[in-house]
Write a structure and sequence with these properties.
This protein is an alpha+beta fold. The protein folds into three domains: 2-113, DNA Polymerase III, Chain A, domain 2 (Roll); 126-243, DNA Polymerase III, subunit A, domain 2 (DNA Polymerase III, Chain A, domain 2, Roll), CATH 3.10.150; 247-359, DNA Polymerase III, subunit A, domain 2 (DNA Polymerase III, Chain A, domain 2). Helix content is 18%, strand content 42%. It has helices spanning 7-17, 70-79, 130-138, 195-204, 242-245, 258-268, 319-328, and strands spanning 2-6, 32-37, 41-46, 50-56, 59-62, 64-69, 84-89, 94-99, 102-107, 126-129, 155-161, 164-170, 174-181, 183-184, 188-194, 211-216, 220-225, 228-233, 252-257, 280-285, 288-295, 298-305, 313-317, 333-338, 345-349, 355-359. The strands form four sheets. The protein has a nine-stranded antiparallel sheet with strand order 6-2-3-4-18-17-16-10-14. An eight-stranded antiparallel sheet has the order 15-11-12-13-26-25-24-19. Strands 5-1-7-8-9 form a five-stranded antiparallel sheet. The mean pLDDT is 94.
Length: 368
Amino acid sequence: MKFTCAKTILSEAISVCSHAVSSKSGDSVIEGILIRCGEDVRLTGYNYKIGITKSIDANIARRGQAVINARVLGDIVRKLAGETVTIDVDERPAVTITCGAAKFNIMAMNAADYPSLPEVEKYCGINFTNASLKSIINQTIFAVSDNENKPTHTGALFELQENQLTVVGVDGYRMAVRNESVITTLPEARFIVPGDALKELSRILPDNDEPCCVFTTKKFALFEFDTVTVVSRLLEGEFINYKAAIPANQPIALRLDKSELIHAVERVSIIISERLKTPVRCLFEGTSLKLTCITSMGRSYDELTIPQCSETVEIGFNNAYLLDALKACPEEEIIFEMKSGLSPCTIRPVEGNSFVYLILPVRLKAGE
């Protein structure tokens, strides 16, 4: 195998595929990147949970394939000073990497030992733009659980019905629901994508309006965009009935400025830390929202002017959970809904139903 390509293109491809490379597995072959040189050059990273393949433009002198340690290959290419890189792999397999006056000789691994990626037939898919899929993931992933006791909650539910896609993340304390109209020939679909795969997908998705498509089987999902394909296993099991968990009628609905609320919560949260955990106490009274926090470090207070609140409500929130939901809202104004200090609150858009965020309150104690 021998090819020459631009250093920047190769470095980017290594970086993308490294998101699926296992760093400490005990299996050296999946700590490497598989490079296939045929009609084009394709790089692959695969850790048995997620696989990423990226094609690049290159001048191919000799076909072949080999596995090269991802960290070593990435470090070498990133440090090279020239504009073009040549990679030459012989039968042993030994690798020669040249760029300008620089030359590296390292050993590769046999491509035959590299695991095969799952095959997903590209028959009927769900179509997005790269930017829309990225926003869907970023606006729900924060609510995905990391508790393995409920495996299905460590992923996000994708539910398709009549060209309407709903993506849901839940961890037992909060829930994020994102709705998006999509183009698809599928009448319906329902599958759970692991949160780890979605995090890596979000990191490599471009923020542009180029097309992106997802295809699924019973056990795997394949995301395809630009010159990249990402394949992930799916989670099996029943997901929570998220529709039943969302309160139907919240008697208190306030139109709030998202940024003002974020800044106020951040200010009173300064005295909160991992060691000094305490809820943010929110008192909705008349046209005022009074935020208070008390820890062993001291006391913090802030106040916002809000629309007239029909009832006086005192409710406590985990500051991180509240901030995550607020920061995920794509609009500057939101509808903040409540029933009482012990009932879940919901955050919705001013118009439409593009998202719903649900946060469980923290039971307040006297003096807290």
